[in-house]
């Protein structure tokens, strides 16, 4: 699975330049924060960040580094969900959601061993994902995506509850990021 279409859809959804006082990420363009752009060597005005630069950042930081290419080889819908979650909440949060969901769906270890809730997508997570899909089949991938969406939605609600300024973003997060 090539993430190009996922990146195109994300960039279209994120839109152009945004600088909202309530957004802790600061100025963004195409959903890329100024801090992330600078970490990739971009020193220009965020309002002029090239689209190709944003796409390259998404591919490197949110697809390749978190090993979503490996996930996509096993479960493309899960990889797409993790990509979206990772770009909005961080790749560590997305990986944690996958770990939690796989652990909760392993029937108390009868299908495969728990993978622990902390850490990136590693070989143990990939093995658990493969085992889950062997047991649950094609429908299992859909169920796993629903579990990931549920965790993401709960996280958004918690963000709005703990920081009232985030309520300005909650509706959009729920409308554009889930299901």
What does this structure look like?
The longest helix is centred in the C-terminal third of the chain and has 40 residues, at 123-162. β2 and β3 form a beta hairpin. The protein is built from 8 helices and 3 strands; from the N terminus they run αβββααααααα. Strands 1-2-3 form a 3-stranded antiparallel β-sheet. The model has no long low-confidence stretch (mean pLDDT 94). The chain is mostly helical and 179 residues long.
Overall pLDDT score: 94
Number of strands: 3
Major beta-sheet overview? 3 strands, antiparallel
- Biggest sheet: strand arrangement: 1-2-3
- H/E element sequence: HEEEHHHHHHH
Question: Which word captures the global form?
Answer: globular
The portion of residues assigned to helices is 55-70%
Percentage of residues in strands: under 5%
Cα end-to-end separation: 20 Å
Backbone structural class: mainly alpha
Helical segment tally?
8
In the predicted model, the low-confidence regions spanning at least 5 consecutive residues are: none
What gyration radius follows from the Cα positions, in whole Å?
A: 17 Å
């Amino acid at each position: 699975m090539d993430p190009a279409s996922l990146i195109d859809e994300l960039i279209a959804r994120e839109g152009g330049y945004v600088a909202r006082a309530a957004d802790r990420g600061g100025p963004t363009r195409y959903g890329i924060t100024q801090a992330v752009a600078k970490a990739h060597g971009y020193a220009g005005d965020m309002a002029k960040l090239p689209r190709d630069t944003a796409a390259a950042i998404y591919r490197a930081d949110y697809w390749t580094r978190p090993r979503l290419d490996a996930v996509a080889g096993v479960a493309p819908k899960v990889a797409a969900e993790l990509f979206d979650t990772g770009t909005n909440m961080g790749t560590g949060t997305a990986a944690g959601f996958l770990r939690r969901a796989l652990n909760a769906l392993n029937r108390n270890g009868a299908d495969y061993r728990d993978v622990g809730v902390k850490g990136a997508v590693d070989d143990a997570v990939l093995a658990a994902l493969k085992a889950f899909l062997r047991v649950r089949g094609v429908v299992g991938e859909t169920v796993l995506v629903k579990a990931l969406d549920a965790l993401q939605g709960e996280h958004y609600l918690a963000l709005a509850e703990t920081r009232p300024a985030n309520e300005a973003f909650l509706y959009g997060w729920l409308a554009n990021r889930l299901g």
